[in-house]
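ok so I'm stuck.
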Amino acid sequence: MGNTIVAFVHLGGLLAALAYAIVSLIQGNVPRFGLIIVLLGIYYIFLLHPAVKKEIARRKAFKTKK
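replied:
not stuck anymore, here's the structure
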C-alpha cells in the first residue's frame, strides 16, 4: 500500500511539473520550458526507468510461472 501511495505522489509531481512547463511555454518562457523538460527527462531516466524495467521483468516472470 505504501509503494502505491509513493507512486501516485511521484506521478502527481511529474504531472504538476509538466503542466508548469506547458504554462511556461504558453507564456513564452521557452528557456524555462526547456529546462523543466530536460530535468524531467533526467529524473525519468535515472530514477523511474530502472524501476519500470524491473516491474516489466517481474511481470513477465510471473506470467511464465503460471
